[in-house]
């Protein structure tokens, strides 16, 4: 399959939803039904097109988003299958940036779950139209009505069923009625008559559907009020308008396992979901905000929304925003301001690569071995400068310290980390100056675990991981002075330097200031930099507990020098020692990072979460009830919540989630300081 499709024949959708709702199985069935494959893979058997990564097979969940084109009735549906597991939310956000509709899958018996809520939240935040597919309708306690009521209670928008389940006399799920085309399929997936018993329901829901579609458009509305029947095309066009402005949310249903409703879903996607024909907000030149239409005759502008890194190099997944992107061309990366040679373009299908000569505006493709392009970058034809805004990813929630196992591991760790973090925007690595540790930060334990394994499998980089030390810092709380004389006169040339320093506390985040107020030339100004250097050495090494000193102003107020023995090194020592002495008299304190957490949990867990936070020295700042959930804002010391990603999951049985960021630094309570000093001393010995 290397047929090239024009914009109007393309549909880009992402499958989102709670882990296990059936996304990967749905893509597998779509491929099978459309004739692209002749065997139905199973997630459990590790043989699906979408979950091909060794880690996905090992864990039987999706970890990375896969792009899978499905050809259906002269259209190409690019389906992006995303992971439902919370740790891999970065993949969801990247995918949302390439599609026109997010199809949120809901398990018909479990209803709205934490993964549904997060999927919804990110689709809304990224301004992507939403539709619902209620799956697993054959399960014993599945209920379309119940799920519909839950959705309406939980989320904003007009939820409009486009399909209804057919049940037999024993209440067994046996088919689906499509309200747009007024057709039905049975459990074998074959068309059948609509059961008479459903006539009333169908009439009610059909009216709802037509009204909702008509409301999106004035002309349709007039026609509707004049009692003129709307054609299927008119209803579909109303649905597209409603979808695109986010007000109308079509609700579909079926059972992927029984292959009921999958054809109908693909029909709805091709007939009532938008083609990628919406203009995109971009920045032209330096700062001109314009809308760029996905016009094949426009300038070639391409957005890289995802990068996969393997041992052969990196694969950049892109969406063509405008123009036609051709193989064997040269383009500019607007972000890194460097030229990229484009080799062979291809259309990804899971791990397969189908080569193509060009890709039209609106379509999704991939290219390998770009030099300086990472996720979120824009590529433009030379001479043009458009920048497509990049997605916003959440701050990391979980960190580990990396310790290379061997010398050879230590030698390559920097390069490998650069590759894996460039590919994944929710992953970050950095040196923490306060603890001198190399950290890897991500969204949770599983996320980090996957990356560590990948580094070992793909790059033979082996590391041990430990829980990071808390990056405490030291500072003072009052003004005081101290004087120090450094004098050495044994042997040859002597050393002499004497300074008196005054230390003053500064505001949080102010850093370090140095000033001289020496009168009458007691110390020559040539030695001031020496004194400052000595102070900085003392600050880096820490005084109270070995952590860096921050937020201090040091003023050299007096001193003494010797005509022969005074020299740079002597004043460095004097500065350092005077600083240490003064520091200890200025009521020194340890500061610890305090994080702000915004925790979302089902109401029933409110008490448990709050009482757990109290044991973690957390302080509740605010609480809000929202459609059955409690949203709690808490300030808590990092020292207590380094493993909160895992703990919250166990307190709420996986039904809670949170975001966090650094709020400020605050004094460590007196009764805890000594223990921290002792630990640090023990480690230094
Ligand atoms: N009973 C039933 N099970 C289904 C149906 N569709 C999928 N499943 C099963 O649900 C399980 C999870 O399916 P997946 O396709 O891996 O779910 P997913 O949404 O991709 O999960 P993540 O990748 O973890 O987000 C598998 O065992 C499927 O066979 C269905 O219609 N009915
Ligand atoms: Mg999956």
Which descriptors would you attach to this protein?
6-stranded antiparallel β-sheet; Rossmann fold; single chain; 685 residues; 7-stranded mixed β-sheet; 5 domains; 34% strand; Alpha-Beta Plaits; 17 helices; binds guanosine-5'-triphosphate; 29% helix; binds magnesium ion; Elongation Factor Tu (Ef-tu), domain 3; alpha+beta
Describe this structure in words.
The protein has 685 residues and is α+β, with helices and mostly antiparallel strands. It has five domains: 10-272, Rossmann fold (3-Layer(aba) Sandwich); 280-387, Elongation Factor Tu (Ef-tu), domain 3; 398-469, Alpha-Beta Plaits, CATH 3.30.70.870; 474-587, Ribosomal Protein S5, domain 2, CATH 3.30.230.10; 591-681, Alpha-Beta Plaits. The chain has a seven-stranded mixed sheet with strand order 2-3-1-4-5-11-6, with helices on both faces. Strands 18-17-23-14-15-22 form a six-stranded antiparallel sheet. Strand 19 and strand 20 (352-356) form a beta hairpin. Helix 6 crosses helix 8 (232-244). The termini are far apart. Bound molecules: guanosine-5'-triphosphate and magnesium ion. Guanosine-5'-triphosphate is lined by residues 17, 19-25, 43-44, 61-62, 83-85, 135-136, 138-139, 255-257.
Q: Briefly, what is this?
A:
The chain is of the alpha+beta class. It has 17 helices and 37 strands. It has 5 domains: 10-272, Rossmann fold (3-Layer(aba) Sandwich); 280-387, Elongation Factor Tu (Ef-tu), domain 3; 398-469, Elongation Factor G (Translational Gtpase), domain 3 (Alpha-Beta Plaits, 2-Layer Sandwich), CATH 3.30.70.870; 474-587, Ribosomal Protein S5, domain 2, CATH 3.30.230; 591-681, 2-Layer Sandwich (Alpha-Beta Plaits).
